[in-house]
Write a structure and sequence with these properties.
The chain has 279 residues and is α/β, with parallel strands linked by helices. 32% of the residues lie in helices and 21% in strands. It has helices at residues 57-69, 80-90, 106-113, 130-138, 151-163, 204-215, 223-231, 239-252, and strands spanning 7-9, 15-17, 31-33, 49-53, 73-77, 94-98, 120-125, 143-146, 179-181, 184-187, 192-195, 198-200, 221-222, 262-265, 269-272. Helix 1 (57-69) crosses helix 5 (151-163), helix 2 (80-90) runs parallel beside helix 3 and helix 6 (204-215) packs across helix 8.
Length: 279
């Protein structure tokens, strides 16, 4: 294959393969095995095991081919629930995980993985915003690659992760300090929001939405901007932004109808207050 091959994710779930591919295809179902997985206790020397999680078959075929030729045993999953099941049973060394998946997204999959697995996680994302990378790292990803990328870059990142001592992560230099707004503290490193020193229970998507607004307190974000930043390429109506803003207000404010934090700019969008009045 030419050295300049690159893969780019298409909009609305449509994949564009910017090079020729060869090798075995994957089944139309959500999973497929491209390499024989050595059973425990086998006399065959163990190879590093890679779990590749992505719902775009062209990309899966491409990366499977490159990783297999490097001698890795590769298992694939096309959705988050299948990935979690295979991570438990196959115990891979590295999990290459797409951020945007059907059902459970990559952020939630990574958060659940960290409850039972110490496998290295390499996140694939088509979104370049810093908050997406920060959130991914804060829930336990070890590294990330931004689309479009060369398959050789993914292979190189996998090799680098396998050389890295356990416990060392790319997040050490990437995460900012906690951000305070009145009695609210947003800690991206710990994926945590506290209010008056008590943890506020937010879902991963609620945290992402609040983190985006907190990048520029006082700046108005349109609903479409927030939809693109938080939900990415998936097809959602702008109404979902209103629903999540309402959820955040219920969790952060004593009186959600008079939010101290999340302000509506009628006909435009939403902003996080630059200064917060006392309750």
């Amino acid at each position: 294959m030419p050295n300049h091959q690159r893969y780019q994710s298409g909009r609305a779930g449509t994949a564009q393969l910017l090079c020729r591919t060869r090798g075995n295809g994957i089944p139309g179902s959500s999973r497929g095995v491209s390499e024989r997985w050595e059973p425990e206790g086998s006399a065959i020397p163990a190879r590093s095991r890679i779990l590749l999680v992505d719902d775009e078959p062209p990309l899966v075929r491409l990366l499977t081919g490159y990783l297999s030729r490097e001698g890795y045993a590769v298992l694939t999953a096309g959705d988050g629930l299948t990935a979690l099941e295979l991570a438990r049973t196959a115990r891979p060394d590295v999990i290459v995980l797409d951020l945007m998946l059907p059902g459970l997204d990559g952020i939630e999959v990574c958060r659940r993985l960290r409850q039972f697995s110490d496998a290295y996680v390499l996140m694939l994302t088509a979104r370049t915003e810093e908050v997406d990378r920060i959130v991914g790292l804060s829930v336990g990803a070890d590294d990330y690659v931004i689309k479009p990328f060369s398959p050789r870059e993914v292979v190189a990142r996998v090799k680098a992760l396998l050389r890295r001592p356990r416990g060392e992560s790319a997040q050490d230099d990437a995460l900012p300090p906690p951000q305070s707004l009145g009695d609210l503290v947003i800690d991206r490193a710990r994926f945590e929001v506290t209010q008056r020193e008590e943890v506020v229970a937010l879902t991963p998507r609620e945290f992402q939405l609040l983190a985006v607004l907190a990048e520029y307190p006082g700046r108005v974000f349109t609903r479409q901007e927030l939809l693109d930043r938080v939900w990415g390429d998936r097809a959602y109506d702008e109404h979902i932004v209103e629903v999540y803003i309402a959820n955040l207000r219920r969790k952060l404010d004593d009186d959600p109808s008079q939010s101290r934090y999340l302000q509506t700019v009628r006909g435009v969008g939403y902003r996080l207050a630059r200064e917060v009045r006392a309750p």
